[in-house]
Amino acid sequence: MSGRTLAxxxxxxxxxxxxxGGDGDAVRRLMDLGxxxxxxxxxxxxxxxxxPMEVRLRGFMLxxxxxxxxxxxxx
Amino acid sequence: xxxxxAGATPATHAPSPAxxxxxxxxxxxxxGNPNTGKSTLFNALTGMRQRVGNYSGVTVERVEGxxxxxxxxxxxxxxxxxxxxxxASSPDEEIALSVLLGRARxxxxxxxxxxxxxxxxxxxxxxxxxxxxxxxLPTVIALNQVDAALNAGIRVDPIELTLELGAPVVATxxxxxxxxxxxxxxxxKAAGLPAAGxxxxxxxxxxxxxxxxxxxxxxxxxxPGAAAMEALRLLAVTxxxxxxxxxxxxxxxxxxxxxxxxAAGIPARSLEAEARYGWIAGVVERTATQTHTxxxxxxxxxDAVALHRVWGPLVFVxxxxxxxxxxxxxxxxxxxxxxxxFNALGAGVGSVLxxxxxxxLVVDGVIGGVGSVLVFLPQIVILFLFIGIxxxxxxxxxxxxxxxxxxxxxxxHGRSFIPLLSGYACAVPGVMSTRTIESPKDRLATIMVxxxxxxxxxxxxxxxxxxxxxxxxxxxxxxxxxxxxxxxMYLLGTLTALAMAAVFKQTLLKGRARPMIMExxxxxxxxxxxxxxxxxxxxxxxxxxxxxxxxxxxxVLWALAxxxxxHAAPGTPPAAAQEQQLAHSLLGxxxxxxxxxxxxxxxxxxxxxxxxSSFAAREVFVATMGTIYGVGSADExxxxxxxxxxxxxxxxxGLPVYTPLVAVGLMVFYVYAMMCMSTIAVVVRETxxxxxxxxxxxxxxxYMLALAYGAAFLVYRGxxxxxxx
Amino acid sequence: MSGEMLQTLLAGLVVLAALVYVGRRAWRTVLAGRAAKDxxxxxxxxxxxx
Lengths: 75, 725, 50
Fold this sequence. Notes:
With about 725 residues, chain B is α/β, with parallel strands linked by helices. In chain B, about 60% of the residues lie in helices and about 10% in strands.
């Protein structure tokens, strides 16, 4: 099982969420927005300055920083 | 289509019927995700009958309006802040939840809740809807933007969705006004019917673990439905909100429930999200169809450029340049017309009234002073129009996305970018828009530096001084020295703002970084009507300010410059007589009194007077200069005023008072000084009001004044030392 | 009353009204600071109008 984090995915790659780590507001906010285990997430691009990144989740576009994406494990 | 049937599959918690208010005012609350067109819907329902204020004790905007339904009954609509869930982690969400639970001070609990859902993002929108449905209030779902959804290949069946949710679903297109009458009818009918309640069941172990927590909440006064909703929510959050502070033993009950849930092998934190989204997936499958998913939408294609590594920033800079260019160039002919109008008015009145104080008051004071301010109306309208377009089309979110990394290098959040940008127009709406910044420290830091972004009120001063003292020579072929000086002033303010933000975030306002989790909404064509309404609102507020504050200040200034009167000996040339009058008047004496303070900066007492009088509002500087130099109705482009400034000689040394160096130093002073009563008032309020607000505003005023004095001093003295004069 | 005196009188009244207005606005700014606790905030007029 690949233990890659969302932060490691390249533009255009997809992943299925297996684990959501971390704590606090960011995680809960992401879950409210639909980032649950088993959801497919697709990395669209990174910002021109490298951070944050844009992902597609449940049909809409979302931004998150590398530091937030590091808590999410995908396969 | 029959939407009256709100009968639901009874879930484990039977909700109690909602109370009916007979005959009186029906209270409706609008909730929904951001970017669902909720505001457009609100505007379409209530038209111009809106009122904006504050919720008690928090800096969250309270927007209310009214409409009459088909039977003529009045309905009050409260547009709650856009939220993604009722998790109460930001003041906006906290207020929405408090209002819906009937626990917000001074706000009536709504009789009917309308959840505005975006048909293009059904899954995510249903999360909030599912929470709202459990609260025990009659609920109607407004399925908005169905037109855009259809374009994206998404079809949602409102009737099927009604059956699934247990609440009436009305398809609407707020921008075109479709579905509104149906919505109003559904709202009217919903008021008397029982509420829907939860439409799914938790796993038995989870339900058992949560039951004691629900009971505790019910004992605390919540209805069973709301208790169920809150219980699930509390498992995920880290802090119990103030609206539940009154429930006894809540913290312990929450901990116990979390432990039980974990013991059953379920992560407590994700229980709510997984339970709700699990149910939602099924609902969406049964009620919505998606065709042509693989196709790249227009939004995708635009973003491929707008967010491109290279093209993105270029597009961004080009757009910003366009906005600024339009303010200065395109507004010019309009401004000339306004100016000509006021000149004619002044001349007209002057010829009708006989000579005397009243004529002087009206022509020099009122028409001259106020006219010099109203001339900016075209610029303001254009600026707000552009900002409105950028926001409504969805580009602003992209701007925050691009700028986040950069903002973070000075310790701010990407969300600070838009308020700071608004500061170029006017600090007041900029400060108010900092409400979208979640971190209190980030917000304070943004507010503290915002007025350094050169607002439109400084433009007359820059224009006057540059026009008079910076020669229009070309530099390096294509650049104009005048234009570059203007740009330099803007850059100075902007760079200082960023630097001060970094300083504040490193010292006073040090804090954790907040997440940058933000939706990038699909691009859309802004509603012309909504845009026109908001720009019109701003323009009318500007006119109001001009018609009241600036008018009064101008009148007071005129009086200070006219009395006491000096009586020139007959035969004295008019210019000298004017001088004498000014020196003799109250204004003149005040100016002489503060001259020692401003002499180190290279200013004489007349400039000193101008500065002092503009502390209330910057534009007054130009009007004051006009009054002081006895030039009838003057504004910053009047050749007469510019000439007067150039010819002005210091009475003691005989040297010119205004040199390019003095002019630049004066502009630098204005870049930094906080000179706006309105901004101070808004900062007081937005930083917490009361003593705390006054303290922050006072601090801001002081540090900005120190910067202004220091920088002007450095420029002037430094320039002298370098050999300029 | 001569035309000039009348003018001066009227001008004086206008100035007085303006002073009263400015004074009230300044007072309201102070009040807005102190009493931000209760609702209604700026009541629609946030002063700047820019």
